[in-house]
Every structure is written in structure tokens, then in C-alpha cells.
Design goal:
Pfam families: Cytochrom_C. The protein is built from twelve helices and five strands. With 305 residues, it is mostly helical. It is globular.
Length: 305
């Protein structure tokens, strides 16, 4: 009987190893086709600047508390705390050794849209590639071109502080299989060009859902509660509902949303607070038409309680 038992254990071990090997193959990092990035030409730096602020790059990657031009030094920011541990935003400055100055457009694009690092590793979704996946190759090319004009820094960010099993990057392939998609977050029928532009900005570079949409136990969006608010993914407090069903913002007009994004003042003359302060600073850098598009989209999506 002992021999039979050992054989059974051995068989299970072989099956387990085979299953894990299959998992690794199926969920291996998936790069974009190189043709995706071919023939992009010279970057449109003005558009790249706009994409930079829409994407909130400095909010995470500039030094904590940075103001003015220091917000353009992307040396790595304050830790992003979560239920899974603390993530440290890396140096993404133009420094060739410590930043991403020596990366190719394809390497940068794979990180942005597929969550794949330069060395072929899975990136943690604390970097919102789940939203950036909707960005166009042109916008990514223009963004990278603009970022290469910014100051270089030789700072080195500390490693992530994650316990087991979250420190096992191989498992991120399974997370991507479950949650990573470039499909629209909401289906909008007969949407105007302005609403479509707003959808692109909110669901893509603006990555608004990363904070304003509640998540399940594995960190994936609860898709039926898009932008309905929920617990603050970084710790204390809550993030508000910004759909038309919101008790606070649901009654705001499009023009009032536009004014809030530009000035930081609500219709009742309160001012923006918390982590939204940095977001509003970025929104103020966008064109008036882009702020109007964001507002049009937020009024067009389904209302959630």
C-alpha cells in the first residue's frame, strides 16, 4: 500500500508540474507585433505633452510633493500602498541607464499597452496598463517623444514591498488572462464624436476607472459598477461615484464638470481635495475641448448608485 500511495503522490506531482508549466506557457508575456510601432515618424511633441498630462505621469513618477518644473523630473514617486503591499513607481526619466531613455518605442509601447517590461517580465497593474491598452500607437509615440525631452535623473526607486504570493510575477499572467482587455468599458450607442473622444480619454490615458471603479478580491474591476466609486485602493476613505447616478456629482451639468476640471472648484464653491488635487492639476493642462469631451462622456455613461 505504501508503494501505491507513493506512486499516487508522484503522479499528482507530475500532473501539478505539467499544469504549472502549461499555465506559464499560456500566460507568458505577450508583446505587440513590431509592425504596430513601425512608421510612426517624428513625435508630435505638443500632442505628447497633452497625453503626458492626460495620463497623469507626474502624479506617480515625480518626487512626492514636487511642484512646478520639478513635476517633470520623473525620478520615481512615493509608494503606492494597497491590500497587496506597497508598490514603488520607478524612474521613467530620460536617463539612459536608470530611466527609460534608451528604450525603443516598441519596448515603451509594450509596457504601456501589454504590461511587459523591457526584459520581457510581467509588470504589476499598479502601473495602469489595463487602461493605457486603449491608447493609439500615435499617442504613445508622441508621449515617448515628449518624455525624452524631460530632465534625466539617476535616482533608483526601491523595490516593491510585496509578500508571498504577490511577489511572484509569473502569476500576473493569470491576472492578465482574467482582467486585461483593450475593449471599451461601456458600450455607447449613437455616441457623438465628442463623447467618443471623452471615452478614449477617460477609459484610456486618463485611467479614471483605476480609482473610481470598485475591484474584486483579485484586484480586477467590477465591470458592472464602472466609475461608481468605492473604497480607496490606496488605503483610507472612499473614491466618489462620478456617474450620472452619483448623489453628489450626478446633478452637475457638463459645463460645471468642465469648470471643476479646469479650476478645481465645485458648483457650490468647494475645492478639490485628496488625491484628486494632482489629477485636477493635470486636467487643467488639457485643451478646453478635451475637458468638454470628458464631461460629455461622464454624462453619457449609465447611472450607477
Amino acid at each position: 500500500m505504501a508503494s501505491t500511495f507513493l506512486k499516487a503522490i508522484g503522479g499528482l506531482a507530475v500532473l501539478g508540474a505539467a499544469g504549472f508549466a502549461a499555465f506559464v506557457v499560456v500566460t507568458a508575456p505577450d508583446r505587440q507585433e513590431l509592425s504596430t510601432w513601425a512608421n510612426q515618424g517624428d513625435a508630435d511633441l505638443e500632442n505628447g505633452r497633452s497625453v503626458f498630462f492626460a495620463g497623469g505621469c507626474s502624479s506617480c513618477h515625480a518626487p512626492a510633493g514636487a511642484t512646478g518644473d520639478a513635476r517633470l523630473v520623473l525620478s520615481g514617486g512615493a509608494p503606492l500602498k494597497s491590500d497587496f503591499g506597497s508598490f514603488h513607481a520607478p524612474n521613467i526619466s530620460s536617463d539612459a541607464e536608470h530611466g527609460i531613455g534608451a528604450w525603443t518605442l516598441a519596448e515603451f509601447g509594450d509596457a504601456m499597452t501589454r504590461g511587459v517590461g523591457r526584459d520581457g517580465e510581467h509588470l504589476y497593474p499598479s502601473f495602469p496598463y489595463g487602461s493605457y491598452a486603449r491608447m493609439t500607437p500615435k499617442d504613445i509615440n508622441d508621449l515617448y517623444g515628449f518624455m525624452k525631452t524631460l530632465p534625466a535623473s539617476d535616482a533608483v526607486a526601491p523595490p516593491h514591498e510585496l509578500g508571498f504570493p504577490f511577489n511572484q510575477r509569473v502569476l500576473l499572467g493569470g491576472w492578465k488572462l482574467l482582467f486585461h482587455t483593450s475593449e471599451p468599458r461601456v458600450e455607447l450607442t449613437d455616441a457623438s464624436d465628442m463623447v467618443k473622444r471623452g471615452q478614449y480619454l477617460v477609459e484610456g490615458p486618463g485611467h479614471c476607472g483605476e480609482c473610481h471603479t470598485p475591484r474584486n478580491a483579485l484586484g480586477g474591476f467590477e465591470s458592472d459598477k464602472w466609475l461608481a466609486g468605492g473604497p480607496n485602493p490606496e488605503g483610507e476613505g472612499t473614491i466618489p461615484n462620478i456617474t450620472p447616478g452619483s448623489k453628489s456629482m450626478g446633478s452637475w451639468s457638463e459645463s460645471e464638470i468642465v469648470a471643476y476640471l479646469e479650476t478645481g472648484f465645485t458648483p457650490d464653491y468647494d475645492s478639490v481635495g485628496g488625491s484628486m488635487v494632482e489629477v485636477q492639476k493635470n486636467m487643467a493642462e488639457l485643451s478646453a475641448s478635451d475637458r468638454e469631451a470628458i464631461a460629455a462622456y461622464l454624462k453619457a455613461i449609465p447611472a450607477r448608485d
